[in-house]
Structures are given as structure tokens and as C-alpha cells.
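RETRY 2/3 - previous attempt timed out on the joint model. Re-submitting the same 529-residue input unchanged.
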Amino acid sequence: MIHKQVINHRQTAWLVGSVLMTAMMISSLHKIVAISKMDAWFSQILPVGYAIVVAFVLAELSRAYPGKNLFEILFIVCGKWIGGFINLILLGYIWIILTLDIKGASEFFRQTLLPRTPVEIILIVFVLLMMYYGRTSLEVAARVNEIYFPAYFVLSMMLYFLLGNEYNVERLEPILSTGLERIFASNLLPIGIYGDILLFGAFLHASTHPRLFFASMKHGILIVGFTVSLLLLILLGVMGFTIASRLNFPIFILVQQIHVTDFLDRIEIILFSLWFPAFTIKVIVAYLAFLVCLGSFGGQQHYNAFNLPSGWFLVVTSLLAFPRVYDFDTFLSYTLPVIVLIIQIPLLLFLYIHARMNRTMDTQVSIPKGTKLYRFYRFMVWMGGIALVGCFVTLVAGDLLVDKSVFAGFFTAGMYLVFFFIALIASYGEMQALNHGKQKLGQGKRAGTFRQ
Amino acid sequence: MNRIFMLLFCLLLVISIITFLVNRKNMPPRQQAIIFTLYGLTIGLMVCLQLQYNQILPFDYLSTYISPLKNWIERWM
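RETRY 2/3 succeeded.
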């Protein structure tokens, strides 16, 4: 869309949160639990690190090619034919994400909440909703997300208290007893979902402050990592790894376990009525990225013309792909991470080298050096980095050096969670410091940092 | 396949194709080509769906062949 629209740093962070977190709720968690059993909640640290690296490369691209999105940058860097070929691969990748999400959500709703409704009807209603948002822009999705994401996040956090009567900490023991190989393997699976961060490359042309854009994405990624770790902790504490690893939709069953009082029944309906719009935002972001990619082939920025044909195409391909839940599940858990690594790592490495050679923006941080705010910003950056490294070190040292006693297990787990939480808080501090710096420099007259 | 879905989908598809054919003279040629491709693929795949070709697609084996991760995890874990 050519007309200027604006979303701010908080909306960017929450959009990243929605895009990465909601997809994990449908499936994938039970495969992680099947691999690393009671240590499954250590499965987020490697994907978080990977997503932060992808976000960093996107921010570098935004610095080197201001006002251009990922697809336009590829055309500039690689030329019409090779650039077009790479964009075609990216279009296929976004199509896979969309098909997985649309089919996954339709099957999920049919099997859990709407057992008598045919999957085709759920699917077409979902795509019609997507097409409605396809006529708008990312700004509308970001505003809707501002209503639902906080509610979804708070409810996810509240699960610990709502399920307090069902929780048994002994189901988590012995902590760190499955071995580093299994924990490493379980860390590979979520990379498929965390790789969705590349979708934000389609909206790079709107980023005016690359450093703030990176800080917002990093904060969103850490929200997801910390929340999913806690959700896994609750899931394992309530069900134990044996049950959790055999359920197709473990989070749905987990929510069904809430028995606060006799009269407060069917809490899952309330929770999923909030979860569904948050998940829809994720699919809308992917759909807008699909339209922007198509628009780059069309050679113009208006993508409205592709909305209807793309929607119908997605209806048919979603019906055709993944006929069984098992196929969808296997693809999401085992094939998507490999596709993500094969596509993204060479592409981002190549683009990063080009971005370093073609930097046009010199000032990266919008805070004057030597000020109190600058010192606070540097402190937050270092603290976040050290906390993330601390998570890795705690995990490795806890497994290799510490004895397998109950106390040592809980001490290591506690340290891991504390470090993760510090990284989350530090990323928030970093984001706010950059935003305040931008406001002080008077560049904040524009309502946000990100326009489309 | 559900008949209400078929009716609704075909109706909406026909309306959008007619709208495109009416308005296509205002569009650049590359844009027209992309939209033609998308509609062509949609109609072709819908025919495949009616003939239930998706039943013979080996999605399960396909996932396993594409990804070594599943075999690796099953073998080593």
C-alpha cells in the first residue's frame, strides 16, 4: 500500500509475539515433550537465539536499503532473474506457512470445538476473514493485536494459578536427566516456527529506525520464548510427559483441566475465544507478506488486486495439503525446521554480507552518547546478552557438572528461568531506552517507527 | 466434499473471475499474468480435489524423505 501508515515499537513487539507464539499452540509442543520428556521446557533457548539473529540481519538490511522490503532488496542485489528465482522460493515458503496455519487451525477447531462442522466450511470462513484483512494493511492487524495479545498473554500466565490445584512439581523430576542430546534435538523443532520471523522482511520498507525495529523484534521473541517455556512447565507439571506427549492438542486439554469452582465451567471456550483472534493476526501477517511478495513480481506496490485470487488459491491448496492431522503434525515438527534452515541460513548470510557493504545510514542508535539514557541503554544491551549466554551456560553446566540430586536440578532450573526473565526485562529496557532517545531527538513527532 | 462449501466457493470464484475480466484492461500486463496464473492453478487444483488426487499423494513419506530430522531423532534418541 502506498499511503503512509504507522505502527509503533510496542505494536511491532506484540505482533512478533502473536506471529511466533500462537502457531505453537496448535501443535508442535507434544513432539517436543516426546523427545526431551520432563526437560522439554528447556527447548526454547536455541530457537530464540536463532530468531534474534534473523531479526538482526533484517534490521541490517533495513539500514542498508531504507524504504525497501526484502523482496525488492533481492531484486536489487541479485538482478531480475536470480532475484526473481529466490523470491519465488520465498513465495513458496510463505505459502507453506499459510497452508500449515490455515489447515492446522481448521482441523484444530473441527476436532475440539466444532466437531459437526465440515472442515471446508471452517476453512473458507477463515480465509474470507483473511481476505477481508488483506484489503487493509499491517497497521489494522497491529491495532487489533493490541487488544487481543495482552489478554492472551495474561491468560497464558494465569494458567499457572488456575491450574494450581492440579499441579504437581514431582512430575518435572528428575530435572536435566534426559541428557543434552535430547534437549538439543528438542531445541531444533521450534526453529520451524521461530523462522516465521522472516515474514517481517516483507514490511522492512516501513522501518525508519532499524535499531529500534531490531530491539522491538528481540523483545517480542523473548516474550515468546519465556511464555512458551512457562506453558511447557505448566503442561508438564499438570499432565506429566507421558500424557502430554501423546495428545494432538495438549494446550487445549490443559485448559480443559481448569476446575476452579463447580459453577465456572468450560473455561476453554473463554480462553480460545481470545486465542483465535490472536492466531488470526498471525495468519494475516503471513497473508500480507504473501501479497507483498506477489506485488514485487507485479512490479508495483498495490497488492489489493491479488487479494481475491490469492485467497481462493489458498482455500484449494489448504484443502489439498495435509489430509490427516498426523501429516500436518509431522511436517510442522520435522520438515519445517529443515526447510527453514536450508532457505534462511544461506539467504541471510548472503544478504548480511551485502548489507554490511552497502550501509547508507550511519547513526544506528538514536541516543546521544555520554548521557544517562545512553548508559542505561548500553547496560540493558549487555545485561540481555549476558543473561542469554547465562541460560546456555546454566543448561550445559547443569547437565555436565552438577550432580543429579533434586536440589541441584531445582537450582539449575531456577537459574535458567531467572536468566531468561532477566533477558526479557533487559530487552524491554533496551526498547524503551531507544524509544525515549528517539522522542528526545524530536524524531518522535511521527507516531511510530514503522510505517507501511 | 461438502455441497454448501462447493456452492459457496464456486459462486464466489466465478464472481471474482468475472470482476477480474471486466477490470483487467486497467491493469499492467505482469499483474494480469500473475492473476491468470493464480486463477488457473485454483481451477486446476479444484478439479484434482474433486477427483480425490490428494488421497494418493504420499504426504507422510514425502515429509520423511525431505527431512532427515525425523529419522535422525528416531535413530539416536
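The mean pLDDT of chain B is 82. Closing ticket.
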